[in-house]
Amino acid sequence: MPIPIHDPHQAPGGTLKRLPLRKAAVLFIVAVCLCLFGLLYLQLEQSRRQDLAVAKMASSNLTRAMAQQAEDTFLAADLVLTSLVDWIEDDGYGAGQKARLQNTFARRVQQLDQLHGMFLFDRDGQWVITSFPDLPRGNGVADREYFKFHQQNASTLAHIGPAIHSRENGEWIIPISKRINDRAGNFQGVLMAGIKMSYFDRFFESFSLDEKGIMFLGLTDGTLLARRPFDEGLIGSSLAQGRIYQNLLPEASAGTAMINSVVDGVVRLYGYRQLASYPLVVAAATSRDTILKGWYERAFQSSVIIALVILGVGLFGWVFIHQVRDGERIEKNLRKAQRALEQIATHDSLTGLANRRLFERSLEIEFARGARQVSPVSLVMLDIDFFKRYNDAYGHVAGDQCLTQVAQVLKACCQRKSDLAVRYGGEEFAVLLPDTDINGALAIAGQIRRSVIDKHIIHSGSPTGYLTVSLGCYSFIPSGNDSPELFIQRADAALYQAKNAGRNRAAVFSLEESMAELLRSDR
């Protein structure tokens, strides 16, 4: 039962096992890197959301301004149309009124910058009066959408129709018109004012948009009236199947949404608003890349900084882990050297058995344990018979080999971890047997004696011709104040009793025989 002088696995100040420093360092470095990544992600996500929120607010404000401008533009034209329709319905547009009406139309167009011109058509769609000096030539406007609308609808409200080319000069205009009735309420014609599309183009251009930005004005049925950037091929096309008309406007008359364009695949933030007074919808869109351009730059810069920090932490961690590994290797070598020193300090170098130092320490421990548990402790002392003759006959090298073979027998016979085989000195050995009574000690002693004989070690100086051993056994139950010296002396006395009885045997300590031997030695 080897008992080390110092337990290398136990901390000097407690019983906690040592922490695996290298693993802890790796986990700490990984945790630091993950925290940095987490902080970077949170910071970038918060910044991205803030940029999008600012863009949504700007888009909402932009569409509000567009809606207000569109409403003011059409409202001014509507008011002019209303006053003129009342005049025409009251006084008619006969020959006596045409000059006055033409002058009035011209003045109104001059007063309102958004107006391209004003036109009065009779019930057949023919030009009656315009704001221009001369009447256009042609077949009239009976085929126009706005004329058909008023012809078929009795509503006196202003009607805004799809954008058209003016038959006066070919300019793109958005018609706003009103029905003219006679005193009986019958259809008598249409008064139309043309809103310049260029007016909205100039208004749209007053706002700063990126190259992929879009602004448009459309009817509530999805018909496109005006657009920036201007594309003549798209004017009059339908947006009814787009997400704004299909999904967003039915839910809310105004709002913002990130939409992937089905036309060019560009993701844009759209702000939209439906006018309350007229069947119009305005929308403005800024590409997501433009909105997040600053965020991308900040993300790149932050990522580079974090990457450099992580690289620094990684390099430091690599150096630290290597230092820890070197320290662990040095400590492992120190523990190995310590165990070697303990082996040297507590074991016999020739036989590998415990030496007297470890034996004495073990006696103290087993005496204390036996006293606590009230269990016996036994000792077997062993001596090689006629060992001096063996050395004289075969030499000291052979004698050392003989001692080693006997030590192997002792090791083999000590089956329990608590049993301790000891080289006591010279050719003398001892076996400490905790929790073993005298019968158990005798059994072990007999096993040792027979095993030595079974080795068939030739010994010409022995009466048997082979190497034999003599053994003495002693057992007692410690009381707590026992003397290790007396314990050893009694086992040694039993050994001498075996020698005196003829050797090659095991003897149990007898106090009477010991006293008799003492008297004989005194004589």
Question: What's the topology here?
Answer:
Elements: H1 21-91, H2 95-111, E1 115-122, E2 127-130, H3 145-152, E3 159-160, E4 164-165, E5 172-181, E6 187-196, H4 197-205, E7 214-219, E8 224-228, H5 243-248, E9 254-260, E10 267-274, E11 280-287, H6 288-291, H7 293-346, H8 356-373, E12 377-384, H9 387-394, H10 396-413, E13 420-425, E14 428-434, H11 438-454, E15 469-476, H12 484-500, E16 506-508, H13 511-522
Parallel strand pairs: 15-16
Antiparallel strand pairs: 1-2, 1-6, 3-5, 4-5, 5-6, 7-8, 7-11, 9-10, 10-11, 12-14, 12-15, 13-14
Helix pairs in contact: 1-7, 9-10, 10-11
Key descriptive features of the protein:
Alpha-Beta Plaits; alpha+beta; 16 strands; Beta-Lactamase; 523 residues; 13 helices
Write up what this structure looks like.
This protein has two domains: 47-291, PAS domain (Beta-Lactamase, 2-Layer Sandwich); 356-522, Alpha-Beta Plaits. It has helices at residues 21-91, 95-111, 145-152, 197-205, 243-248, 288-291, 293-346, 356-373, 387-394, 396-413, 438-454, 484-500, 511-522, and strands at 115-122, 127-130, 159-160, 164-165, 172-181, 187-196, 214-219, 224-228, 254-260, 267-274, 280-287, 377-384, 420-425, 428-434, 469-476, 506-508. It starts with 20 loop residues before the first helix and ends with a helix. Strands 1, 2, 3, 4, 5 and 6 form a six-stranded antiparallel beta sheet that branches. Strands 8-7-11-10-9 form a five-stranded antiparallel beta sheet. The chain has a five-stranded mixed beta sheet with strand order 13-14-12-15-16, sandwiched between helices. With 523 residues, the protein is of the alpha+beta class. A hairpin with a 6-residue loop joins strand 9 (254-260) and strand 10 (267-274). The chain is built from 13 helices and 16 strands. Mean pLDDT is 88; it is low at 1-17. Helix 9 crosses helix 10 (396-413) and helix 10 (396-413) packs across helix 11.
